[in-house]
Specification:
The chain has helices at residues 19-30, 38-51, 58-67, 93-96, 99-109, 112-126, 138-142, 156-169, 176-192, 214-228; strands spanning 8-12, 33-36, 70-74, 82-86, 89-91, 131-135, 148-153, 205-208. It has 229 residues and is of the alpha/beta class.
Length: 229
Amino acid sequence: MSLPSHLQIAIDGPAASGKTTVAHLLAQRLKVLYLDTGAMYRTLAYMALQTGTDADNEGALVRLWEQASVRIVLDEMAPLGFRIVAGGDELDEMTLQSKHVTAIVSTIAAHPRVREAMVQSQRHIALEGPVVMAGRDIGTVVLPLAHVKIFLTASVGARVERRATQLRAAGIDVSLHQLAREIEERDRLDRERPFSPLVAAPDAHVIDSSEMTVNAVVAEIATIVERSR
């Protein structure tokens, strides 16, 4: 499939809806850049923990992001589809998905100035060429003029199973009951935050992946991309 150099594909959805996996595979299929913006917020959460920065201190968090040496290296061979280096250390999936990072990432992501700083970084990456970007406000805030917008959702039960599988593969032991509570709370925080709440863009294609395989979702989005050309 020949794609225009300015193509932007935005994939949004709640926690564990499968958007990260789908976006990664779609980017590989289309041979374009890929970025999971949630990993950027988790990187900041990790840095806050390492430096003792209060998750409620918006100004300090913004300064931490602006002053820290954070590099996002797009690499389709990496497990995440890219590599994140913070303070000279590459952060792996186990680190970014740790329970300590998960416990504060929603609080950090709710700060308007933090999100503004992240959006600037994300838009800069999008200028590098065709991109598939996954997150919670890509189609509504980060790339509002994206050519294709997808809102990927799934039942809580399906999302719990997917996140549990992901965490176990990373060597993290989890309780399904606790995981369900965490996902439901994350949903509430994402929906109710006053700045950039989780919501489908009016022109987004809504896909419920509860009963779909990953490959089926990727194929459906690829078809939507082809039709949008």
